[in-house]
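Tutorial handout. Part one gives the primary structure; part two gives the three-dimensional structure as tokens.
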Amino acid sequence: MKKYKNYEVRPIENLKEMLYTSAATWPEKNAFLEKRDGVYEGITFNQYLLDVEGLGTELCARGLLGKRVIVTGENCYAWALAYMTVICGLGVVIPVDKEIPPEEIANIANVSEADAVIYSAKYEDKIKKIEKPLDFICFDELSGLCAAGREKINAGDRTYLDLEIDKNEMASLIFTSGTTGVSKGVMLSHHNITFNLTEMCQMIYIGPEDTFLSVLPLHHAYECTCGFLCQIYRGSTIAYCEGLRYIMKNMKEVHPTMILCVPLLIETMYHKIWANIRKNGMEKMVKKALAASNASRKIGIDLRKKLFSEIHETFGGKLRMMIAGGAAVDPDILKGLRDYQALTAPLDGATLPKSKKVFDNSKVTDHHAIIPTGQPPQNLTDMERRVFDLIARRFIAVFYPDCLFATTTVIGEVEQIEFKVSGKQILEPGWRVVFGTPSAQSQEEKEEKGGEEENVLPAFVVGESGPHLPDLYEKWTQPPRPYTEATLLRAMETAGKLVDNDELRDALKENGIGRPSTRAAIIETLFKRNYIRKEKKNLIATPTGVELIQIIHEELLKSAELTGIWEKKLREIEKRTYNAGQFLEELKQMVSEIVMSVLSDNSNRHITIQAPVPEKGKGEKAAAASDKPKKEPKKRAPRKSATKKTEQAAGENQPADALVGQPCPLCGKGTVIKGKTAYGCSEWKSGCTFRKPFE
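Part two.
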């Protein structure tokens, strides 16, 4: 793994300290470039500090000290001023997406218990629909408020200036995008934010000579931290883009050295560049230049700026870094998978299919994806190599065509008795080629189907007939295979299959039982409590687990249907068609009924508690050691009292243990089992009342 240099950073406790030290270090340097009347104008670090102090003092006088303030609007100096003023001691800042509907903004205002909103005049109609009583402050008012605050400071008002900051207290409340439901609030402290700043600046060099073009929305933590606060911390200049349509125009005007973006933006730029190259008939020449550039870089000579100067000028001529994140990278990275060139070659130059099974923005369930980056792996262990191979092949297979197959039914006749067999006939292997199984199922498919082999038939022609020499096999029907950890995880994910109710089945389709992050922990808990044990790869229920299920009379409690009911109601709560309070009351009532049912149960049911059986391998050495004959130690005469007690215990236990497994003396159907305090019959559920207490 490549080791990167750790760049030096200055320690900071909070953002207020960061602002003051940056203003003291680079007082007359431009912190911001903002377009006004068609021309970019600069705002220095010193002016930024004075504006923050003035606005903070005036807002304190306005009664907003210790309050929660929403900031929403387009990327501009006013947004940066409002954010920094609130977070540097005034209260809690709540950055909000300007594009969300009015009702969602109103919901955030209610949930966050906001007291004020500082907003852009462009979105005034939307903001004024908030019914909650708030202090509304428009961006256009900020310059006047700053001036009024400076006057108060000159008159001796130090309320805002002397505010102390607890680095561990909540300073910012940001809301998630809401892709998996209603937006959720995430609390951030000064410690959280400053830690991210210093860690990022250790890995990437950002300095006062850099000019940063701000494109992504500032309400998002990604842009706010890396594209705003980071630049203030490092003394860089921030130039605000006028909009996505003006990116290339603004680049030529401000000559940025850095830009923070998402892969989609890079892809758009990439495609436009190549479109212009093809339009001018220069595709072959550029490809040759690329090949020459790559070859020269291998020997330490970088010709990129000379060969591609025109393209470089398109980006302002000084661009040195593009930081991308937040989404999957364009499949061009397939070219970087050097060990898989035979598999990626068919995709080169072709339009990549994006199946709805993979690329479906309407069904975002998890915020993560593991894909190769195009960086060739080096110095991997055998296990690491196999893991990487799984990830790389799965990623490549996504862009392969579907596997086409036909379901074939063959009817044979022997002595006027018909025999029929059905199976698949692979017409086009498609993605199966990637996994090396063009005519058979992959290991993953096999595991999903419980280890059952797929019946793949050879090619047949309709109407084909002829003699056939049969092969006869004697086989026995088998019970369902025990779960393994892999198949159990899959079963938890697809638990809806076990539910008969269509509505509940659909509710379970989205999530199943648990979440990807919790399912493994659920299984681990079953192991810890000795409800299940492992025999090789198979998971087997212990007597404790079996009796626990048997002891529960409430069938719904043991069914996946209960999870389906809860999931359905949670979806209705998200849609605001069902009351959350009612849901909680129903849960309380159900729990109360179950508890009362258990307390009133007089059937003397019990659960056998057994010590966990060590996994094979862990206890083998101990078992082997116990099997070995040991040297007999010198015999010592035992003390009389100890001998007496031992003999007495043996005499008591011998007849008692002998009862276990014997036919029940009362009903004769069941067998005697051992409980905590007495012996009983295994047919106790059927009504047998045999019970013999321990003597």
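Part three, for discussion. The first helix runs from residue 15 to 25. The longest strand covers residues 417-428.
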